[in-house]
Amino acid sequence: MTPRDSARLPAPAPLVLAVLAALPWAMPAHSAPKQLPRIDVVAEASDGIRTIPGAVSVVDREALDALQPLSTEAALRGVAGVSIKPEEETAVVVNIGIRGLSAADYKSLVLEDGVPVAPGLFVGNGRYYNPRIQRMDSIEVLKGAAALRYGPSTIGGVINYKTRDPKQGVSVSARVGSHDYREATLEAGLRSETGGAVAGLFYTEARGDGFQGKGFEMRDFMAKAGAAFGDNQWASIKFSHHANDANISYRGVFLDAYRARARFNPAPDDFFLTGRTAVDLNHEWQVNDGMRLNTLLYWNQMHRDYWRYNTVAGTPTRVVNGLTVWNYADTLNGNNRAFDRTGFEQRLTFEHGGFGTSNEAEIGLRLMRESMDDQTVAATRALPRTGPLSRDVVDTADSLAVFAQNRFMLGEALAITPGLRVERYTQKRVDRRRSDAQGNRAETSNTEVLPGVGFTYDASPVAQWFGGVYRAFSPALNGDSLSGLRDQQLDAERSTNMEIGVRGASGAWRYEVTAFRMDFANQIVPANSNTDFQVTNGGETLHQGLEAAMGYDLGHGFSVDANTTWVPDAYFNGDRRNATGAITTPDGNRVTYTPEWVANLTLGYRQGPLQAAFVVHHTGEQFTDTANTVAIVERTSGFFTGQVDAYTLLDLTASYEFSEAFRVFGAVKNLTDRHYIASLRQGIYVGPSRAVEFGVRYQF
Asked: What pLDDT does residue 490 have?
């Protein structure tokens, strides 16, 4: 067993690139689309948000330029309702919680241009791939009953990263920063003379040492092209390839090293190697003025090779220079997984006059197949990337989803939108180290019926009420539901979600306030505080609170934007016991990684060529285990547990446009050099120290 070559461009790439190069001139173009066709969460129309019966946040291009984030998680950190469980400053893996859902779980659907990006929605952990911020144009965050249009795992909501469309010309940008951070990006685009065909590419390469010596090398490539066919049809293709070699691990530092502000890598020989290749094909047909058909075909393939050294049996720690460190053995495991997904989706939207009123309807279908090869390689320090297999399992899942919704316009002010989604999925597991006679396979299946209804009501020109109630679910993954080649009888995580809110704008003011409630019939949680990966039906939980966002243009170029999320209730409802009778989720205890308070404040300035922002972020205290342990407990096998204290971070960013072609920008992140615990795993993950960054961008 040998490691994969994450730097090699996959075999389909040359053919795809040739098609992209030829497309703008090969296709007859009659009319130019406003954008390349894709499936959006929020309609591009000016009133797109006002038609959605749920809370919506959009991080647009201007906001991204002001924040200058290094990762998509850094960009999402300031969104109302969102909490982040930080691990590394470049956010190699995904740790996003929404509305009191644990940021250590995966109960929100993450899309890129409408396509699922989690490596496995049904078969495996969805945290292993995080899209890169450098090629994003905006981010949509959707909550409420409108999330029924998507699935699965929409309990918290839907996050959709929208990539940049090609523009005519060439631009280059570069950024350097603390801890030897270096980044370079190339963008190039062409359009036909009529504007009806376009093609372009985006390439970013970044590397750094990390503030704790957790270095990485990342390469990210995307090519897009599209053309109009006649006056009412458009087609596009997107090819992307991502590779990231990161010197990171599950293991963090011990308390004494944290208190000493030590900067060493706690697992210097562990590596997290990822690569992802994807192709998306989109077609949009404007059948007539009131009807549109979108068709999406996608394929993506990803690998995650995680090479982690074992500790010495009996003496897993030692003391070096007065500090506790892990005592690593000469053996390691390659926990390697390869994912493959193929999907087909169609959405038909149309207007009609049925039921005696004006209506906007949407129906959709999704077919998807996922697979995961899960292998563990037993290696040694002398041969660190090869060895015999101690695990060789193949997980597959086939799923079918259909949905329909109808927006009834009851007069000029009120709209009611009922909807229904049905998800049917079958999960299978085969252990390739066993024979058929030994019993090497297992299977389980499930059907979820998810109704919902939402509303919008225009109470006045400056206030729109919205709300709804809907059922949501997140499936148990193959590794949990079929552990030990037995159906573990793990129910899907099911929740009844409710919200009501008001939003609007008046003059210099803009605002959105939402009260929400998520009532779980079952939430899957760790089996007990000491195990790393075993899970069980955790029983009922309740999550409810309030999120509020508002902004005000102060004049003379100044503006202020603020939001806060208050989740007073995120607790287990009733004791849950395991097979031995031990309580695994005590009644009234708080769910892990659910801070009661998260708040953000941005003071912005934009005048002429100068743009600046002063950003304040606060994350409240949170528990890391279901026992709600307060003092940090160091475990040399299993996860560390304890309360993570609240922390507040300050960032300062600025940019200056010398001309339309040339811009410089810079930032100071963690301005006060706050020393804090970001999260716990097999050790303490320390929050990044103060970092200074500087960049330039030039448009040819």
From this structure: 56
Q: Which residue reads 């006045």 in tokens?
A: 460
Q: Cα 155–160–161 angle (5° rounding)?
A: 145
Residue 50 DSSP class: G
Q: What is the DSSP letter of 672?
A: T
pLDDT tens for 241-274 read 999 999 999 899 999 999 999 999 999 999 999 9
Q: Which of 596, 591, 594 is nearest to 628 (CA)?
A: 591
Question: Does the structure show a pLDDT above 60 at 284?
Answer: yes
Residue 489 pLDDT more than 70? no
Q: What pLDDT band is residue 528 in, cutting at 50, 70 and 90?
A: very low
Q: What's the confidence (pLDDT) of residue 126?
A: 76
CA distance 544 to 37: 37
DSSP 178-244: TTTEEEEEEEEEEE-TTSSEEEEEEEEEEEE--TTS--EEEEEEEEEEEEEETTTEEEEEEEEEEEE
Ramachandran region of residue 575, left (φ > 0), alpha (ψ -120 to 50) or beta? Answer: beta
**Whole-angstrom distance, CA of residue 660 vs CA of residue 609:** 9
Q: What is the pLDDT of residue 534?
A: 46
What is the C-alpha separation between 145 and 152, in angstroms, rounded? 14
Question: In a 10 Å sphere around its CB, with 0-12 CB exposed, 13-18 middle and 19+ buried, how is residue 286 labelled?
Answer: middle
DSSP annotation of 609: T
pLDDT at 6 over 60: no
Coil, strand, or helix at residue 346? strand
Q: Which residue in the block uniquely carries the two structure tokens 């899209």? A: 131
Give the largest CA-CA distance in the chain: 80
Q: For 687, how many CA atoms within 13 A lie in the half-sphere containing its CB?
A: 22
pLDDT at 479 over 70: no
Report all structural domains of the chain as residue ranges with CATH numbers, in order of start: 13-699 (2.40.170.20)
- The burial class, CB within 10 Å (0-12 / 13-18 / 19+), for 11 is exposed
Integer Cα distance of 211 and 188 in angstroms: 33
Q: Which residues of 44-83 are buried (b: 16+ CB within 10 A; e: fewer)?
A: eeeeebbbbbbbbbbbeeebbebbbbbbbbbbbbbbbbbb
d(CA 168, CA 186): 13
Residue 349 pairs with which residues in a beta bridge?
292, 362
550 in Cβ contact with 514 (< 8 Å)? no
Beta pairing class for 158-163 and 109-112: parallel
Q: Which two tokens stand for residue 23?
A: 């497309």
CA 220, 226, 228 angle in degrees (round to 5)?
A: 170
The answer to whether the CB of 367 falls within 8 A of the CB of 341 is no
Burial of 34: CB neighbours in 10 Å, binned 0-12, 13-18, 19+: exposed
pLDDT at 579: 56
Query: How far apart are alpha carbons 119 and 139 in whole angstroms?
Result: 20
Residues 6+ apart with CB under 8 A from 491: 476, 522, 524, 537
Tokens 């009996």 locate to 314
What Å distances lie between residue 657 and 64, 173, 268, 274, 662, CA to CA? 16, 13, 41, 36, 6
No. of helices (H) and no. of strands (E), the chain: 5, 39
**Which residues make Cβ contacts (< 8 Å) with residue 96, sequence separation at least 6?**
73, 76, 82, 83, 84, 85, 103, 108, 110, 159
Closest CA to 57 of 126, 158, 163, 153: 158
CA triple 691-695-699, angle to 5 deg: 160
